[in-house]
Input
Amino acid sequence: MDRHNLRYLSFILLTFLLLTSSVVACASTIPRESEAPSLKITPQVVKPGEPVIISTQIRNIGHSDETHTVTLAINGAKTQTKVVKVAPKKTETVTFTVVKNEPGTYNVEVNNLIGSFRVVKPADLVVSNLLITPAIVEPGQEITVSVDISNSGEVEGSHSIALVINGSRAESKELTVAPGVTKRVSFTFTRNAVGSYSIEVDGLSGLAIVAEAGNIVAQLSATYPELYEELFKLPDLQEIDDKDREAIEDIAYLALDPKYRPAFEAMLGEGIKEKRKYCTPLEALLWIAYDNEFDGYNPMRDYSLAKLMGDAWKNTTTSKNLGKVPK
Output
């Protein structure tokens, strides 16, 4: 082959390669006939039961009608499907509505477009730690009743707190508590009449006693004479000092609270009343009273004779001083 023909063939081959690459390049820039340009999730943070709107736009950039199937998947599971017809050079919006009740993060996928939304934990308000101070007062002296209200949810919550005295609503307050916050709410009242006053705040209950100075034991004598009589039969109360008086007042306070009456009745019913020298469970309670104010540990709150006797023998100063703690 002569040099002239060789040059001609080379020219033909080069021209073919250039044309081929041009066609490929042009083909790669040809747009798709339709596009789904965006995914919109509104709102992205909701409370349980609130709707979430998920939408996307299908744009037809071609010259003829296009029909498309749009599928919504939540956490990988297909939940809704819609078929949309898009005219040439037009855009159609496809919308899904989703409602979830369980708190958590939900992953969203619509035809390969990805997003997410979150369902927050609702306000969860809990009232606790009822405190009555002082629990025993003289007529006309102020009594303060307080409770804690905590919000363990993820959104702000409101709650109405009412103070109920002897079954009647005395006062109420409206509180708003931010998520993760604990607030203390207090009520203050006075009573002039001597007696016991049942206190209730949002299902929590306690007792306030109005008595003349140093007279709660006399009130016990008048309202619960059997317990009063058995109390002063106890060996440790044959000679009374200041420590004994404090313990007696603490026991009297418990005994005047109606909700503990069944426990005291069970204690007084132990053994044979006509033959026993004294009520042993009551003696055990006295030992515990020497060491406790009953505002923390209270054996009458969930009464059990075995537990009461065990605590008195194993955990009190009196039993240790006697040196009789059984192994």
About this structure: The helical segments are 3-28, 216-223, 225-231, 242-255, 261-268, 280-291, 305-315, 317-322.
